[in-house]
Amino acid sequence: MNVVVCVKQIPDPADPGALNPDHTLKRDGKLILDESDTYGVEMALQLVDKAGEGEVTLVSMAPNGEVAGLRQALAMGAAGAILVSDDTLAGAGALDSAKVLAAAIGRVEGYDLVLAATESSDGYTGTVPEQVAAILDLPSITFAKEVDVADGTVKVRRQTEAGYDECESPLPALVSVTAGVVEPRYPSFKGIMAAKSKPLDTVTVADLGLDGEMVGWSGAGQEIVDVSAAPEREAGEVIEDDGEAHAKIVEFLDGLKVL
Amino acid sequence: MALSKIWVHVEVSEDAIAPITLEILAQARSLTDQVEAFVGGPCADDIAATLGAHGVKKVLATGDLQGGMQGVHVAAALAAAVEGGDAPDLIMFGSTYDGRDIVARLSVKLDKPVVTNNTDVEVDGDSIVVSEPIFGGTEIVKTKFAAGTPALATFRPKSFEAEESGGGAAEAAELAVPDVGAAGGAKILDRHVEETSGPKLDEAAVVVSGGRGLGEADKFDMIEKLSKLLKGAPGASRAIVDAGWVPYSYQVGQTGKVVKPTVYIAAGISGATQHMVGMKGSKNIVAINKDPEAPIFGVADLGIVGDVHKVLPKLIEALEAR
Ligand SMILES: Cc1cc2nc3c(=O)[nH]c(=O)nc-3n(C[C@H](O)[C@H](O)[C@H](O)COP(=O)(O)OP(=O)(O)OC[C@H]3O[C@@H](n4cnc5c(N)ncnc54)[C@H](O)[C@@H]3O)c2cc1C
Ligand SMILES: Nc1ncnc2c1ncn2[C@@H]1O[C@H](COP(=O)(O)O)[C@@H](O)[C@H]1O
Q1: Comparing A172-186, A215-229, B35-49, B113-127, which segment has the lowest mean pLDDT?
Q2: pTM > 0.90
Q3: Element (H, E) at B241
Q4: What is the rounded CA–CA span in Å between residue B46 and residue B52?
Q5: Between B308-320 and B220-229, two packed helices, what is the crossing angle to 10 degrees?
Q6: B176 close to B63: Cβ distance less than 8 angstroms
Q7: What is the SS3 assignment for B16-38?
Q8: What contacts B314, CB < 8 A, 6 or more positions away?
Q9: Please, is A57 exposed, middle or buried when counting C-beta atoms within 10 Å of its C-beta (0-12, 13-18, 19+)?
Q10: How far apart are CA B168 and CA B49, in angstroms?
Q11: Which positions ≥6 away from B238 have C-beta within 8 Å?
């Protein structure tokens, strides 16, 4: 059982976001492993463990050669990683990212399953995994809250508006997982040491046989025309609870006629 | 320039049209008088009637997908229709589970980018421009499509106001699904509908949400009780969803539901940008937090600096006494 996991390296979500003058998201600082992707990594490790054979390969695309997030996922137990890094990737949109990731996944021999998160913490387009599946012509199940593999079939509980759907697909397939699908492990000291010597291939867009003009900002097919501050909501009255604040709330709700 | 034609994805949940579809239809109508809809499934009479009442002239329906996934089948069908020369200027989807799957697959088929999570769309000269809030809704990015038509965009729930325009049932037409090969291998075997009582979180007039400030899972009872007394729905911050106190379906925010009730009550919630993006559009906001510096007070119409364990029980008692 060989599993490929797409892992995105992102600016720390705790830092306030910022844009470059050309309106692309600033990503020049240090990047970290997107927490959303730790669930995919953990899921993959558990599935390979259960199958008793195979390995987990990571695939990531980042413009500035960042590997810190990949090292973290390798420390969790993945066997190796492919990083696509290239100046032309600055400003790449979701479709471009998917083209690049699909080409990188194509370099992994004999994969059975591709995992990704349902959405990234910084871009949250939620379209990349399904686009990757479309490019690789794989069946896919998104929004998985439970995943199991047996006899060449992946069984998934897919989150829906009203509850969940019981789904299955033959392998190879792509599955996107929601946060909380499993409890991601913390890398052990041994894992962190081992990660330092695990194979991590850095490749360029040209290495993947893709046209640099077609991916990234130049090929995005969309143009940001304006960025402006959203209208602020005015704060109202703030009172200290003196033991009677509940009465104030009742009065407020009464005024709105919701009681 | 008015657009010549728009297609709108019809989201069907438990045999009824989801509110987001009707919201998007209202906006589509303001951009063109040629609004058509498409559905990954059969078009039942009541669906055609509702769509007609919301200004749709024609519904393209795939018929029963036999458990096949929406994404791969509907995208293949739409791509075939577009390539057959029937292309609209814009295809609008909700930022929903199936909407995202279909638009993602379609973008690959048509080799066109998707702009996701928008809250507005306008026509500027002869370009289509969409607006997306970023950084927790503090800034708005406007993006122009520059890859020719059809433009592909998804819209967040509650971005537009649904409104009937009057009109007879929409005419149903076939949206033929071509063979999708191996990519069609995934199947839905069974559907589970989780039991809920009371109004839905994203449709309720009153939402009472609890956060980590409640201290422990059991204390969420206070939120349930209060929301019931107000005939509203209980909601939650991601902190307590991740902690397993309540199911994901309760989550309000960037990665949860967008709510715009008449009143939103936030109890023990700090007001992280990712939470606020899901509730800032509420008509009235009441916040209870023991920290006077909590960001939630910045958007509250009535802020109570106090302990939820003191304020909520008294509030519940006062409402029960009425
Ligand atoms: C990519 C991403 C997506 C996210 N999506 C979402 C989302 O969709 N929804 C969401 O909610 N969050 C989301 N988050 C998480 C978000 O950043 C916050 O971590 C989360 O909203 C915090 O939840 P909280 O307010 O309950 O907890 P905290 O931030 O810990 O706040 C608890 C509050 O309770 C107050 N308090 C403590 N004790 C009491 C008491 N006795 N009485 C009164 N007040 C008390 C404290 O003063 C504090 O303000 C996301 C984060 C990321 C990175
Ligand atoms: N640059 C990237 N490198 C690796 N994986 C990615 C990248 N972009 C997106 N993904 C994967 O696709 C998921 C959804 O991303 P998004 O569509 O941006 O919300 C992410 O959580 C990752 O699993």
Answers
A1: A215-229
A2: yes
A3: helix B238-242
A4: 10
A5: 30
A6: no
A7: EECHHHHHHHHHHHCCCCCEEEE
A8: A246
A9: buried
A10: 7
A11: B251, B253, B255, B256, B274, B275
Cite the DSSP H helix spans in A108-244.
128-136, 189-195
Q: Compute the nearest-CA separation of A113 from chain B (Å).
A: 13
Mean pLDDT over the full length of chain B: 95
Question: Which residue type sits at B184?
Answer: G
The phi and psi torsions of B172 (rounded to 5 degrees) equal -90, 135
Can you give the length of chain B in residues?
322
Burial track B265-283 (b if 16+ CB lie within 10 A, e otherwise): bbbbbbbbbbbbbbbbbbe
pLDDT in tens, A202-250: 999 999 998 877 666 555 688 888 999 888 888 899 999 999 999 999 9
* Residue of B124, B292, B301 lying closest to A236 (CB–CB): B301
CB A96 within 8 A of CB A131: no
Å from CA of B163 to ligand 2 middle: 36
Q: Looking at per-residue confidence, does B173 or A214 come out higher?
A: B173
User: CB–CB of B99/B11 below 8 Å?
Assistant: yes
Give this complex's ipTM. Answer: 0.91
CB proximity A21 to B under 8 Å: no
Spatial separation of the C-alpha atoms in residues B135 and B143, rounded to whole Å: 16
**A9-41 confidence digits (pLDDT tens):** 998 887 777 777 777 777 667 889 999 999 999
At residue A117 the predicted structure's pLDDT band, cuts being 50, 70 and 90, is: very high
Q: What's phi and psi for B183, nearest 5 deg? A: -60, -15
CA B161, B166, B167, B168 dihedral sign is: positive
Residue A76, helix vs strand vs coil? helix
| Spatial separation of the C-alpha atoms in residues B115 and B131, rounded to whole Å | 9
A110/B contact by beta carbon, under 8 A? no
* CB A27, CB A89: distance < 8 Å: no
A193 has a chain B CB within 8 A of its CB: no
Q: Is B186 on the interface with A (CB under 8 A)?
A: yes
Over residues B148-165, the pLDDT tens digits come to 899 999 999 999 999 999
Interface probe for B, chosen from A95, A153, A215, A240 (most Cβ of B below 10 Å), is: A95
Q: Please identify which residue in the block is written with the tokens 């703030």.
A: A238
Pocket test for ligand 1, best of B207, B218, B238, B314 (most atoms within 8 A of CB): B238
Using a CB-CB cut-off of 8 Å, the residues of chain A touching B12 are none
